[in-house]
Here is the input.
Amino acid sequence: MALAAWWLFTITGTFASVQLLRAAPMSALVPIAGTMVLLAAVAANAVAISPQQNFALAHWGWASFAWFAMLLWWRHPLRWLGAAMLANIAVTFAALVITRDLSRIDVARIIMVFYGAGAIQLGVAAGGKALENTARRASQISSAEMVLATNREAAQRIHTDRRRRYRDIGHDVRQLLAGLAASTLDPGAEHVQQRCGVQAARLRRLLAEHDDSPSPLLHELRACATNAERNGVAVTLEAVGVEPDLPVKVRRALCEVPIHLLAATRTQARLTVVCTQEPIQVDISVVADAGALPQAMPAPAEIEMFASREEELLWVRTRWAPRSS
Here is the structure.
């Protein structure tokens, strides 16, 4: 019977160690069943020994119980381990009282053994839990600091990029205003008016870029359209599909062609934005009575552009899709 108790302890301890090393948590039924097996082994060990071996090494089960129970209940609150240790005390006392006569000295010695062993075992368990909680908090703090540093770096990059954009647009606006002030540019000339419209639309788009919107590209195109409407152009903006998550650089490139076309439009324009998810693609079509295609209109390298004319209407289509790696 003592050998059977040893095997029960060995099998339970091995199983609990393997489960503890796995990432998936154990069901609450597993430590309960393991505790019942250990208690049965403790009772078998207590019954198998002779009365003279109550406090000898042969009676090892009752003092070793908590070390194995600790493996079973490690991922559970400490009070469950305490309850298992109390059950061990009750089972051991019951087995000894039923199978032999215990004197007051024997009872006192049993209490002292349980007290000494239990204090060490609970101390180890509590210390291990404290170290585990400290390590978890340190990991959480480290992760939070990493996220904070990443957000700070991203914010700094965005700030630097916006300062550069403000500087570039400010340079173009200053040149335009300087030309108007020096009378080297005629405010009545069509190309000068288009330049003014382009710079005004760029400023509106840059301001809209800072807004929090579920569809940033549409929001920025509406800002560009608003600038054209202030100049008497009837603008219709339609959207089809769900806008993908576009980098700021891509949104700026997609807005450049509509900005120039709207600045050159005389009376009416229609913008249609078509977004697809599979494959990811964004198409922007502009139909406007814009006369000739503006020569100053940029054609960003990452944007495909197609243009055609039908009588008084100019149709320009721009397309963006992520480059395949």
